[in-house]
Design goal:
Blueprint lengths: L14 H19 L4 H15 L8 H10 L3 E3 L6 E3 L1 H15 L1 H6 L9 E2 L3 E8 L11 H12 L12 E6 L4 E8 L12 H18 L4 E7 L3 E4 L16 H13 L5 E8 L5 E4 L2 E4 L6 H16 L4 E5 L4 H14 L2 E4 L5 H13 L4
Parallel strand pairs: 6-7, 6-9, 9-12, 12-13
Antiparallel strand pairs: 1-2, 3-5, 4-5, 7-8, 10-11
Helix pairs in contact: 1-2, 1-4, 4-7, 7-11, 8-9, 9-10
């Protein structure tokens, strides 16, 4: 019989492809920092190239830009000719953020995450039970049922009765509705520290995680400054800080309104902020006070925290600033809601949010 002999295959190194991947990884980071401004990101990339020799004679920056167009990552805006990102780039940035923020998760855990309850779920477990009227036929374990029939009735005349049937239990998958609130007040870029970029990366990673692994969950994203408004997942790379105060009240009211319309049992709010509430709307006017904790604003904020608690909506606050005078507000806010708070640095923000997301998904309220 003639066989096949296999030998080791070592593919030739594709230097052009390697250079593209390296440059594209850097460009995705720069696009996140610049809020999706392609021209500014490419300008920064050119400066990095001049300083660190990212390209060579075989593959230059012009080749890279042409490849971005050919591969569908960039396109020219109609009318102006300005280079802009495509939907393909937005998806790639979200996937990159997921890998960066939750990389350790992907190495240690896989699959969906389940609650401790069993029921009429979608994924089979190892537990077995006797058939009950109304059980789906696809959950019947044929092997176990036939074995029971042979034991109960012998193998001469095969007979399968209802009492012989066994059902393979399925695990109940908790569904969760999450609202992520992101502070875009001016303080998120003050004092030489870029706090908005890590917040955007975490939001993109969380959105990619939920849409790909938990498609029945819902994630709504709110940004809040002087006002609060909802944004789409595709808008996250373009998110920028504005000349705003911090209207936490508007953000909480919008989050509660969104969750009120969700039918899932599990509901939660994640709030990423670096400061205290300094603004609220009274009629059509803005009431503002940036000097310390204003009692009028504080009391309204705490009342909303209590209201969320009564609606069984836990609020987890991620304070990405360590100023001691903010701790009193966060402590009072968390106590009013019976939620949780983390004084997180920017490096640990992603891991904290993910752990809480996983933990809260397993609850049934």
């Amino acid at each position: 019989m003639q066989g096949h002999r296999f030998t080791q295959f070592v593919p030739e190194e594709n230097q052009e492809g390697a250079n593209f991947d390296k440059l594209f990884n850097i460009l995705q980071q720069l696009l996140t920092i610049t809020g999706g401004e392609v021209s500014e990101a490419l300008h920064w990339l050119n400066n990095l190239d001049n300083q660190y020799n990212l390209t060579d004679e075989n593959y230059g920056m012009g080749d890279f830009i042409e490849d971005l167009k050919k591969k569908g990552f960039l396109k020219e805006e109609e009318g102006s000719g300005k280079l802009i990102m495509t939907a393909k780039t937005e998806i790639s940035i979200r996937k990159s953020a997921l890998e960066e923020v939750f990389g350790k998760l992907k190495r240690h855990r896989s699959g969906n995450h389940h609650s401790k309850y069993s029921g009429q779920g979608e994924e089979a477990s190892t537990d077995m039970r006797t058939y009950q009227f109304g059980d789906p036929l696809e959950n019947i374990s044929l092997t176990e049922s036939i074995r029971n029939a042979q034991i109960n009735h012998g193998i001469g005349d095969f007979m399968l009765l209802e009492n012989d049937l066994e059902i393979r239990e399925s695990e109940f998958k908790a569904q969760t509705s999450t609202v992520l609130m992101i502070d875009i007040s001016h303080s998120m870029i003050l004092y030489g520290e870029d706090r908005i970029t890590p917040a955007k990366k975490v939001a993109m990673a969380l959105s990619e995680l939920i849409t790909t692994r938990y498609p029945k969950d819902t994630l709504d994203i709110i940004v809040f400054g002087n006002d609060a408004w909802q944004i789409q997942i595709k808008d996250l790379p373009y998110l920028q800080v504005g000349p705003y105060h911090t209207n936490t009240i508007a953000g909480l009211e919008l989050a509660m309104d969104i969750l009120r319309r969700r039918k899932n049992q599990n509901k939660q709010i994640f709030m990423i902020t670096d400061g205290k509430p300094t603004c609220m709307k009274v009629g059509i006017q803005y009431y503002k006070n940036s000097f310390g904790l204003d009692k009028k604003i504080l009391n309204k904020t705490l009342r909303l925290a209590v209201q969320c608690r009564r609606l069984k909506i836990p609020i987890t606050t991620f304070m990405i600033a360590s100023d001691s005078y903010l701790q009193e507000f966060v402590r009072d806010f968390t106590e009013a809601n019976q939620g949780k708070a983390y004084y997180s640095n920017l490096q640990d923000l992603g891991s904290f949010i993910f752990e809480d997301f996983q933990r809260n998904r397993k609850k049934r309220v």
